[in-house]
Structure formats: C-alpha cells, structure tokens
Amino acid sequence: MTDTLLVINAGSSSIKFQLFAIEPGDRLDRRLKGQIEGIGTRPRLFANGANGQRVVDRSWEIDKVSELHQALDELVVFLRDYVGRLPIAIGHRVVHGGPEFVEPTLLNSRVLDRLQRFVPLAPLHQPNNLAPIKIVLERQPHLLQVACFDTAFHRHHPEIADRYAIPDRFYREGVRRYGFHGLSYEFIAARLRQVAPEIADRRVVVAHLGSGASMCALFNGTSVESSMGFTALDGLPMGTRPGQIDAGIVLYLIDQEGMSAKEVEHLLYHDCGLKGLSGISNDVRDLLGSADPRAKLALDYFAYRTALFGGMLATALGGIDGFVFTAGIGENAPAVRQAVVDRLSCFGIGLSEAANAKSDLRISSEGSRVGCYVVPTDEELMIATHTLRVLRKYEMPEERRA
After folding, report:
1. Which of 36, 145, 156, 398 has the fewest beta carbons under 10 Å from its own?
2. Active-site residue 292, yes or no?
3. Looking at residue 395, what is its pLDDT?
4. Nearest CA among 27, 386, 327, 351 for reference residue 206
5. What is the pLDDT of residues 50-104, one digit of tens each?
6. In whole angstroms, what separates CA 19 from the centre of its chain?
C-alpha cells in the first residue's frame, strides 16, 4: 500500500487538509483536498479526490464536533476508511517561527513549547496552528510531525532589512522584521524556473494578495525584502487587518480612547482593512459587486497601497524585471490586477487586457518593459515537500507506521 503524507492548516473553527501519496522517486501525488469547517457551530467535513470529484460530504450535530480534538478524531476516522491507514507523517503550516526556526523542523514537546512563545506575535494564527500538533503529540507520539514556517523563507535577509530603528537590545531579543507567506513565495520562486525562466534569476516582485496580503522582493529566487514585519499586521491592507499604521495611533487608542491592549488587538486583527474601510465586507468579491462608494474607496486604497509597496520593493532590488500576482485575489481578480499595474506604469509595466481578463500566465502587453504574470501558489505542496525531506532524514521503522 502506498505511503501518504497529510498536510494540515488549522484555523480557529476549521481544519484544511490535503493528502499526498508518496510515489516512486519520492514524487508527491495529491489524493485528497478537503476541510472540516464550522467546528462548534455547524460542523461539516468535505473533500475532493484527485480528479476533483467530491468523495465525502458529512455533517454532525454541534455537540458531536464542538472542539478541535473531536474534529481531528473524525478526520482520522475518515482517513482510515478512505486510505486504509494513517499517513506516515503530518506537515503543519506554522505562521511564526521567531528568530530561531529558519527551516522545517521535526516537532516534539520541547519545540512546541518554544513555538508557544510566539503566540502574541501572531494571535490570529499561531494558537490554531499549534493546537493540532499538541493533540497529535499526545495521541500519536510516534507519528512524525513537521512544522513548516511562514517566516523561514525570509530569515536570510541582510540585517539592514530586518532592523527597526529602536535600541539594539530589542533586536537581540527578537524584535525584528520577519516577513510572512514564505511558503507561498518559496513555491513561486521554484515555479518561476519552470513557467517563466526568463525572470526566475532576476529581480522579481511577488504580490501574494488574499485575505492576508503581503509582497516580497526576490532576486535569483531568494527573498531580499518583504512588506510584512514583526507581526502579520504590517504592510498591505488586508481583509480585516490595516497593514502599515503609525504606531502613534495605537498609543492614541490606549491613551485617548481608553482602549485596553486586548481591545486594540481585536480591532487591528478583526475590524480594520477592507472591512473597516468599506463598512461592508472583507471579501473583495463582495466589494467588486457593490455600487457603494465605500466599496470603491476600499478597493482603490488596496490597489494604491499595493502599488506603493511594489515601488518600495523595486527600490530594494535596484530595479524590476518581473511582477507576479498570486493567491486568491491575485489569481482571480483581473480588475484588481489592472488597478495595481495602472499605478505601476512608471516602471514600464503594462497589461494585455485580453490576457488579464483570462488570467493567463503572462498578462503583460507586448510593449511592456517588465513581464507581468499570474502564477497560482501551492503552499500545501511546499509543506508536503518539506515534510517528505524531513521524513527521509528521520526515517521511522516500519512497525511504527500502524
């Protein structure tokens, strides 16, 4: 029977998962893509097979799957029924690796304890990323688990790019610019060598535009600079996060508005960004379909700030040879791409209206001095690839694979 790897991306009320078969030559073949959503409210498991056909769609009463550990139990039951046995390893997306975790890492209780320290730096993601790891460690301690970090790809920036202009002791304590969405950028850097080799080794700005959004400057496939910093609040405006904001505003909210630190945290993570600007929705699809002028303001602001950071990253690279859109908005919203590129025309970037409308691989016009591309990302495949490498390094005896 073919061995499999499971990739888990856990949220506050959902578990996204993908299952990969390990084929000869260590080729990874995606067999399942699914999710358990509505944990604690309207729990539902659904998944599609390799051909895109739905293979399971199952719902439960709230008390049956009201907590994460119950959802994991149901996922295990489903995998045993569908595959015949459990995967031999699990790869997890972990948003923040701090200053010490710079590569995919084998998980144990000691590593988990160290990762808990970064919860305050990513309160929207880190607790949910770590929760299933803890459960699996308790219930299946011999099952190999690997943490793949969104910060790791950026951890080789030059010091000048990672510093804040604050006293040195804070930098030595780990207060520095980390950057996020590294698994996505790592995949794009590798993918460009296959689909756009003409820019893969050159100066490329990648815009990962989704509910969480950031940008990265690549040179020769390596991260040079990122729009995000110490936490996943910085940089571009996002679905519910503000992006770049004057630190004095936080002081104002505390001193003048009387808000507690927790209240400010909730505001910045849940009530700002496109949601805060529009007062309508954090979903770009809703905003594109709305006639409300506040929706237009939010979209214009998003495009303006994306182009602004594009110019900043081009400066970090000393020029620009390619611009890549990826992630949910970047891959699926031609109007947003057009609005961004219109503001970047000073760099010699122009779009083909027809190619952009179809979301072709190359969407730049014939006269564009800079190639512009739409490249779908695949963070789960990146996690599976890293997990397999760690698995081969720490190969488990056959008797532990039950």
Report:
1. 398
2. no
3. 74
4. 327
5. 888 999 999 998 888 888 888 888 988 898 888 888 899 999 999 999 988 999 9
6. 18
**DSSP string over 266-334:** HHHHHS-HHHHHHSS-S-HHHHHT---HHHHHHHHHHHHHHHHHHHHHHHHHTS-SEEEEEHHHHHH-H
Q: Which two tokens stand for residue 298?
A: 């939010």
Contacts (Cβ under 8 Å, ≥6 apart) of 382: 148, 183, 184, 186, 187
Distance (Å, whole) CA 104 – CA 92: 10
Q: Are 167 and 127 spatial neighbours (Cβ–Cβ below 8 Å)?
A: no
Domains identified in the chain and CATH numbers: 4-155+383-400 (3.30.420.40), 198-379 (3.30.420.40)
Neighbours of 177 (CB within 10 A): 20
The contacts found for 190-195 with CB under 8 angstroms, 24 or more apart, are 190/221, 191/375, 191/378, 192/221, 192/322, 192/324, 192/373, 192/375, 193/221, 195/361, 195/373, 195/375
Residue numbers in the chain where pLDDT is lower than 70: 12, 396-402
Catalytic residue among 26, 73, 81, 150: 150
Identify the DSSP state of 64. Answer: G
